[in-house]
Amino acid sequence: MPASPRSRHPQAVLFACGMNAVRSPMAESLLRQIAPRTMYVRSAGVKKQELDPFAVAAMAELGEDISKHKPTTFDELDDYEGLNFDLIVTLSPEAHHKALELTRTHAIDVEYWPTADPTGLDGNREQRLQAYREVRDSLQQHIRKRFGRHGLGNE
Length: 155
Hints:
This protein is an alpha/beta fold. The chain is built from six helices and four strands, in the order αβαβααβαβα. The two termini are 26 Å apart.
């Protein structure tokens, strides 16, 4: 099925994962790096948890400061500003199911990018941080591939 013109060139993108503490805040920040100023980018989770310090550290390595990110749920986002998005990119199964529920009442395209959850891994600090870097780098590749033409001209 071909992508609709709206989903190919979205004006408002929501990244969603389980807790809005690691994957979706990373993706939000990464897309903001290359998106035109006219594109609205947010993130949300099915539930919420405190922002993960390893996610903050992994993004800081790229010069991105996500330390002020406040985890938000779909329901809170809907209450605060509505779900006026052209595209929801889901990064976890629970977020994908929630997004599909929303598309019953909202005309929103949904894309599923299965993304590993690095939070449950054991190991020393460097090994754990490496898992977050891998998630960050994977998201960055997906974002450049999907949205690069909307970037600053060199993508």
